[in-house]
Amino acid sequence: MQRREALKSTGAMGLFGVLVAAGLITPELAHAAWDKAAFEAKSMEDVLKALGAGKPADSKDVQLSGPDIAENGAVVPVGVKSALPGTEFVAILVEKNPNMLAASFTLPEGTAADVSTRIKMGQTSNVYALVKAGGSYYMTVKEIKVTLGGCGG
Fold it and tell me: What is residue 151's predicted lDDT score, i.e. its pLDDT?
């Protein structure tokens, strides 16, 4: 099996394991990327404080995509795209989840600010996209209705 085929067949988590095994990512480096206080925060104020975001400005240059109605809250596809120059950080927050911060992404310089993932939502809620660009924070919001809860509901 060639290297390319091995990497394709392992998937994202397998690739992470391959990078750890190769010594390219150390456990300390992976742990340093985890912002425990932000991911454990229960309120918007606590999340913003943990991330150092203060009071983000509303921005039309940040787009949050997702379904208007999610049939299954366990797998809700969302995406964030930023047209702000110098975007370096993107976070997705779900207002009514037990822990608001659902995902965060640190973008290396020169990377297109366009991320997508699947999040879990327990109920209908506002979903927020938080973006850091040029040292300032910006936010946008979208309500997503959930018909079948994904957090044990």
Answer: 59
